[in-house]
Structure of Low temperature requirement protein A:
Amino acid sequence: MATSKSPTGDTARNGTAADNARTAPTRFRLSPMRPRDPNEPGRAASTLELFFDLVFVIAVSIAASHLHDTVTAGRLGEGVISYLLVFFAIWWAWMNFTWFATSFDTDDWLYRLLTIVQMGGVLVLAAGIGPVFESEDFRLLIAGYVLMRIIMISQWLRAARGAGTARWTTIVYAAGIGIAQILWVAWLAIDDPTMRAVGLGLLILAEISIPVIAETRGTTPWHPDHITERYGCFTIIVLGESLLASANAVFDALGEVADIVPLISLGLLCLIVTAAMWWIYFWPPHHRAIGSLGGSLKYGYGHYFIFAAAGAFSAGVGVEADSQLGNSALDPVLATFTVSVPIVVFVLGVWVLAIRANANAVVNTVVPVCALLILADPIIPIPTFLTTFFMIIIVITLVVFPPTTEDS
């Protein structure tokens, strides 16, 4: 996590990112890892960052698939808890790299190599998702997670050499991450279920506390437009994965049922709702939400729920399709909720983090009220009708009332 500030002190002396790129490389052809200018014009997501996101979406897809299978088998609570825990590891590793990159990306060969190794850790983590759902075996998942975090330690230590006034911040990040990884490995040795649950909660709390503690030592610079573009890119990729998985679930079910009207309705929901989720997410100017450390933490941490909901949406569509085919052990009403609840969480999450501060009273009434009314979908006999209807109402409202200006 990083917090925005004007390029003062060492940051100003180090110059802009363009100046850093022109700095003569060392004998190992490495560029000095210096803080990037938070006011750098035209800062956009790099191709390496987009490539990095694709590997994480593999993990999201696998987690959603196992959520679908577990919930369809009738183990709703178990599936949701496992999904939320697995998704924390995915999201937290992605977010830490993203905020680091906005501050210290050099794009030299060592930075690229370490990032690719970190991507390998994502694949190991993805391979460990199945054992977590099937037998609560976290060993492989934690192995992949620890590998990713060790790479981040090396990146933070490298950044410490040229971080200037943020040097202690980078060291605190590296030390905090290192201690947390030792504790994760030690946690695997705990056998008592209660102690494992308590230890898991404490470790998650420790992980999310590291940026809060580190940034009090001296802030690292971030680029508001770049960081919000990174979040936007990941949102698009996760929504695309959800649309693909949802469409496949509906297509596979079409050949197994005589009455295809409910499935066609579900298919239309996939398209309309996914498009509406995209529309809703990109309506507000997100860069306004991260103008302070508190705003940055709220925005960054709050996206856990947005990303997790987007990933779970596809699992919910699969569960609903199985329920209509009679292939689900889950109650039909609960099956419908597996579709509507992720949508509600997504919409309310975006509203709280980005829409509310940039909208008038009409938008700030319609969006949360319509989102909550989506929860009434299971009570009517027409599947997904209310969900689709209220999502369309939200989009129409956003079209009629554009975001307020900063001076409004």
The chain has two domains: 9-17+44-215, 224-400. Confidence is low (pLDDT under 50) at residues 2-22. The chain has 15 helices and no strands. Residues 9-17+44-215 form one domain.
